[in-house]
Amino acid sequence: MILAVDKVSKSFGPQVLYRGATFQVNAGESWALVGPNGAGKTTLLRIILGLEGADEGTITLAKNSTIGYLEQEAEFSDDASALEEVLASAEEVKALEARLAELEATMAEASGEELEAAMAAYGPARDRFEVLGGYELESRARAILSGLGFPVEDFEKRARDFSGGWQMRIALAKLLLSHPDVLLLDEPTNHLDLESVQWFESYLSSYEGAVLIVSHDRSFMDACVDHVAALENRRLQTYTGNYSAYLAQRESNLEQLRAKRAAQERDIAHMQVFVDRFRYKPTKAKQVQERVRRIEAIKEELVVLPEKHARPHFDFPKPPRTGDMVVELDHVRAAYGEHVVYDDLSLTLYRGDRVALVGPNGAGKSTLLKLAAKKLEPAAGSVAWGKSVTGSYYAQHQLEELSRANTVLSEIDAVAPGWSTPEERRLLGAFLFSGDDVEKSVSVLSGGERARLALAKMLVAAHPLLLLDEPTNHLDIDSVDVLEHALVNFPGTILLISHDEHLVRAMANKIVDVREGKATVYEDDYDYYLWKRAQLLAEEGAETEAESAPSSAPGQRPRPASAASGAKAPRRTHEMGALSEDEERERKRAEHRAQQARKKRLAQARKRLTEVERALEPAHARERELTELLADPDLYQDQERFAATLEDYEHLRAELPALEEEWLTLTELLEEQGQ
Fold it and tell me: For residues 141 and 155, what is the distance between their CA atoms, to the nearest angstrom?
C-alpha cells in the first residue's frame, strides 16, 4: 500500500459529494478517477494532498513516500531557463549533490576522526544519489522535455517567456523529473499535442510509483490506467481494468441491479395481489400477515438503482450548401517577425471534409487554422473561401471574451437574435446547463463551464465551416460526448486541432500532418495515418542504414501528396494490381490492427511477467520458511500449529508450479519477440 483513502465523506452545505469513499493504491498501479461534472473529483485530489479537509475518513500515505501534484498555475524563477527550472525540481538529488561535494572537500583536507566520519557518511549519500539517478539527472530532464515536445534549441529559453500552454508543460516536466512515489494528475493532457500524449502514455505505462489521473481523454485512460475509481451517486466504486473495461463492468453491474430490482418488484406485486384479495378473510389471516411481513422485508432490501444523468445531444442547425471547394490556401507565406512558419503552403478543403490537423506543438497547426479562418493575414499568397461559405472559429482565447457581468442565458441571448427562451435553454441544456444554472453569472463559472458556454455561443449560427482549436480542453467526458455527437453528424466542413485521440478517430475522414513548414495530406482516417506515418518513418530509417535497399514494397500505395508542393490535394484513385483500392486499404488496416494487437499483447506480457516475478519472490521465501518450520521437531508437539503450517505448505506447493510455468512461458515469449 502506498496510498489509502478510507471512508472519506465530503459535503458542501446540503450538497453531499460522497460518503464512505474508500480505495487503496499500490506501487506500480495507475488509477483513473472518473465521474460526472461536479461529482467532486478535483476536491478528492485536494483532500488527498491535504489542501482541503474531509468531513469524515482518513488519508494514509506510506512512510517516507512523496506525493506530487500538477499545479494549474506554474511559478518560475525570474531568469531560469526551461532546463534549469526542470532540474531545480529534483530537490533531494540537488541536496545530495551539494552534500557529496561538501564531503569530498572535507575528505581532501581532513584527517583522523573527522576524515573517518566524512568517509562513513559519503558511502550512503553516494548510494542514495545513484538510486535517485543523480548521475543521469540532466539527460533525464532533456529526455522529458523532448518527449513533451520542446525542441532542443528551446531548452535554454527563459521559462517565463513561454506561453501559458508551454509553461504548463514545463511544470509537468518538473513533476516527472522529481519522480514522486504518488503522482496526482488533473487533466494532464490539456496542453499536449497528440505526439506528446503518446509519449506521455508510454512514460506512465512504465512508471514505478503510483499514478492517480483525472482526465476526459478516454483513449489516454485506456492506454495508461489499470484501475478506475468512479464517483457516482454520492458513492465511490472501484473497478479493475482500463476505462473501456470500467464502462463494460459498470453496464454489466447495472444490468444485474436492474434484474434484481425487477425480480423484487415482481415478488412484491404477486404478494400484494394475495394480500388485497384475502385481507378480510379470517381463514387466510395468517397467510396475509406472513406476506405483509415479507413485503416489508423486501422493501427494506430493495435495490436502489443509480440516478440517471441526463445525456443530452445537440445537432448543429443545418447549414446552407456550399460549393465543392470550401477553403483554398494558395502559395501562402506566414511569419511572426523573423520566424517563418510557412513559406509556400497550398492546401484545399472540400465540402464534407472533416480534417484533423496533427503534428508536434510549435509546428504551425494553430497558425494554419487561423489562416483558414481568415483570422491571420498571410504575408504572401492568398486564402479564399468558396461559394456560400461562412465560418465559426473556436479557440481558447474566446473564453476570455465572455462578459463576466452577464448570466449564462444572457450571454447566449446576445448572439441568438430571434431565438425564443425555450430554444436557448434547449441549446444550453445540451451543454449541461440546466435549471437555475442558466442564471449563473459568468464570473463564477469554472474553466470547464466557460469552455462549454463559449462552444454553445459558437454553435448558434448555422455556418457550413467549423474551425476548432482544442475544443475539448476543460470539458468533462459528458460534454465531450455531446460535442463528438454533434461533430460526427455535422453535414458541413470541419477543420480541427485536438489532442483527444478518441474524438479524432470518431470525427476525422482526412488527416493533415503539419511539420517543418509543410502540410502533408492523408486522405483517410486516423488509423490509416498512424499506419502510413509508421511505414514512412521505417522507410526513412531503412534508407539511412542501407541506401541500396528498396524504398517500397510491391503493390504499396504511393506516398500521400504534400500540400506544400503547391498542388491541390488529390483524391486517391484505384491502384493497378489484383486488389481494388478498398480491398488494399482493408488489407493494410488489417495489418495495422494486427501489429497494434501484437504490441498490446507484448505490453500485457511484460506487465504480467513483472507481476509474476513480484509474486514469485515472496512465495519462494515463504516456501523456505515453511520448509524450515516443518524440519523443526518442536512443531509436531503442537498439532494445531502443525496442521496449519502443513496446510500452508501444501497450498504453496500447489501454487508455485503454476507461477513458475507462467514465468517460463512469458520469458520464452518475450525472448522470441526480441523483447
Answer: 10
Bridge partner list, 60 = 4
3-state secondary structure of 583: helix
Look at residue 334 and give its three-state secondary structure. strand
Using left for φ > 0, alpha for ψ between -120 and 50, and beta otherwise, residue 199 falls in alpha
Output the CA–CA distances (angstroms, integers) from residue 594 to 205, 531, 554, in the order listed.
21, 11, 20
Angle between helix 421-430 and helix 447-458 axes, rounded to 10 deg: 130
pLDDT in tens, 102-114: 888 888 888 888 8
User: What secondary structure letter does DSSP report for 81?
Assistant: B
Sign of the CA dihedral with 244 first, then 247, 248, and 249 last: positive
What gap in Å lies between CA 608 and CA 662, rounded to an integer?
9
| Those residues with Cβ within 8 angstroms of residue 91's Cβ, 6 or more apart along the chain or in another chain | 178
Nearest to 8 by CA among 17, 359, 577: 17
- Alpha-carbon gap, residue 500 to 473, rounded angstroms: 9
Question: Maximum Cα–Cα distance for the chain, whole Å?
Answer: 107
pLDDT for the residue numbered 543: 64
- How far, in Å, CA of 318 to CA of 463, rounded? 8
Residue type, 32: A
Residue pLDDT, tens place only, 157-192 = 998 888 777 888 898 999 999 888 999 998 888 888
Whole-angstrom Cα distance, residue 293 to residue 121? 75
CA distances from 586 to 43, 510, 524, 527, 593 (A): 47, 16, 12, 11, 10
Place of cell 482526465: 215
Please state, in angstroms and rounded to a whole number, the distance separating the CA atoms of residues 48 and 45.
5
Give me the DSSP letters along 161-181: GS-HHHHHHHHHHHHHHH--S
Distance of CA 359 to the CA centre of its chain: 18
* DSSP reduced 3-state for 73: coil
The backbone torsions φ and ψ at residue 219, rounded to the nearest 5 degrees and listed phi first, read -65, -40
Amino acid occupying residue 7:
K
| Residues in the chain, total | 675
| Nearest alpha-carbon partner for 438 in 467, 406, 398, 466 | 406
Is the Cα dihedral 66, 68, 74, 79 positive or negative? positive
Distance CA 161, CA 146 (A): 18
The DSSP symbol for 562 reads: B
Is the CB of residue 244 less than 8 Å from the CB of residue 229? no
The pLDDT score that the predictor gives to residue 97 is 85
**Whether the Cβ atoms of residue 675 and residue 606 lie closer than 8 Å to each other:** yes
Residue spans of the chain under pLDDT 50: 548-578
C-alpha–C-alpha distance, residues 301 and 282, integer Å = 30
Task: Give φ, ψ of 433 to 5 degrees.
Answer: -105, 110
Q: Given this model, what pLDDT does residue 621 score? A: 79
CB atoms within 10 A of CB 189: 26
Beta strands at 3-12 and 56-61: parallel, antiparallel or unpaired: antiparallel
Cα of 628 vs its chain's centroid, Å? 49
- Residues whose CB falls within 8 Å of the CB of residue 388, separated by 6 or more in sequence, listed in order: 320, 321, 322, 323, 464
DSSP annotation string for 426-471:
HHHHHTT--GGGGGSBGGG--HHHHHHHHHHHHTSS--SEEEEEST
Q: Pairing state of beta strands 30-34 and 227-232?
A: parallel
In the chain, DSSP finds a helix count (H) and a strand count (E) of: 19, 18
Nearest to 137 by CA among 57, 83, 63, 193: 83
Would you state the cell numbers that stand for residue 275, as one nine-digit string?
394480500
Kindly state the cell numbers that stand for 228: 478506475
